Amino acid sequence: QGQLVESGGGSVEAGGSLRLSCSGPDYLFGRASWAWFRQAPGKGREGVAVIGPGGREADYADSVKVRFTVSTDNAKKTVFLQMNSLKPEDTAMYYCASDGQSLGGSWTADEYVNWGKGIQVTVTS
After folding, report:
1. Beta-carbon neighbour count of residue 108 at 10 Å?
2. Number of H helices, E strands in the chain
């Protein structure tokens, strides 16, 4: 189904910024939708941002609107999540995902079939 690889995580103080990147196989780009999910200890996967085929449309969870921006670079086979004004509650393992089916962007984790292994983001007070 294709292996996705996240990078760019780390630890920052509240109010800081991080930019996550996700690389994947060529066949997923241009047609599939992409999403970023996150999961904190003891919690389920939470949808953060979704972006449609070709990066034409993006949606965000209310908790991250304005602060986060998702984008794609199909030529570089990379999906990005720019995170600004980070808060301690943003601390979680972040996962990149693709539906592989051009579903148009879904907030349901089960709709995504290609996943990265996750990357830790920690925001300190």
Report:
1. 11
2. 0, 11
Instruction: Supply φ then ψ for residue 74, to 5 degrees.
Output: -65, -35
Write the pLDDT tens digit of every residue in 84-99. Answer: 999 999 999 999 999 9
CA proximity to 74, closest of 98, 93, 94? 98
Distance CA 3, CA 5 (A): 7
* More confidently predicted of 1 and 78: 78
Per DSSP bridges, beta strands 119-124 and 58-60 are unpaired
Q: Within 13 Å and on the Cβ side, how many CA atoms surround 37?
A: 25
